[in-house]
Amino acid sequence: MKLQSIRLMEREPARALFYRANAALLERQYAQAREYVTQALAEGAPPEAVAPLLYHCICLLGDWEAARELVRKYGQTDMLQTALPSRFIQVLEHREWNARECVEVATWAYRNQSWVTAARLLTEALKRDPSFAEALNLLGELVVRYKDWSLPLTEQEKAALEKVVVQGSTTK
C-alpha cells in the first residue's frame, strides 16, 4: 500500500495529495487536510474538484476570513453542498453574526464533529446573549459529552476545547 502511495505521488502528485486530504479529513485532522488540499492546488489539481474540500476544512477550522476569500476566488458552485452555507460568510462580510447565527453555525460545526469551533461559536453567542437557551443547551451538551469522555477527541482538541470552555466561563 505504501509503495502504491509513493508511485501515485510520483505520477500524479495532485491526486495523491487530494487522497491524503480526504484521509486527514476523515481522521478530523482539519489543518492537515487543509494543507494537503492547498498543496494539491499548487500541484495543478482542478479547483472545481478540490475547492469544496478546502472550503469544508476551512469552515471546520472556523477560519471565516479564509472561507470568504475562497468563495470570492472560486465562486459558490458545489461548495454549498459540502460545507457551511455561504450565506453565513456573506453576512460576516457586512457585519458580525448575531447570537442566533452563531448558534446555527455552531450546530453545523457540532454535526460535523468540529467540537472546538462549535464551542468557540457557542461561547461567542453567549457573550452576545447570555440567556440564549439554545446556546446554553448545546454548550452544556458539549461539556457533558466532553466530561464523560463520549467525544472522540485528539489531545490537541482536548486542550483547545478546555481553553475555550474555561475562557467562556470566565468572560460571562
Secondary-structure topology with pairs:
Layout (H helix, E strand, L loop, with lengths): L1 H10 L1 H14 L3 H13 L4 H15 L2 H11 L4 H4 L3 H9 L4 H13 L3 H14 L4 H15 L7 H16 L2
Describe what you observe in this structure.
This protein is mainly α and 172 residues long. It folds into 2 domains: 94 residues, Serine Threonine Protein Phosphatase 5, Tetratricopeptide repeat (Alpha Horseshoe), CATH 1.25.40; 77 residues, no CATH class. The chain has 11 helices and no strands. The radius of gyration is 18 Å and the shape is flat. The termini are far apart.
Q: Report the mean per-residue pLDDT as an integer.
A: 78
Structure summary, number of beta strands: 0
Looking at the overall shape, the CATH architecture of the largest domain is Alpha Horseshoe
Highest CATH level, the class of the largest domain: Mainly Alpha
Looking at the structure, the CATH topology of the largest domain is Serine Threonine Protein Phosphatase 5, Tetratricopeptide repeat
Q: Biggest sheet, open or closed, and with what strands and sense?
A: none
Name a few traits of the molecule.
172 residues, mainly alpha, Serine Threonine Protein Phosphatase 5, Tetratricopeptide repeat, 2 domains, 0% strand
Gist of the model:
This protein has 172 residues and is mainly α. The chain contains eleven helices and no strands.
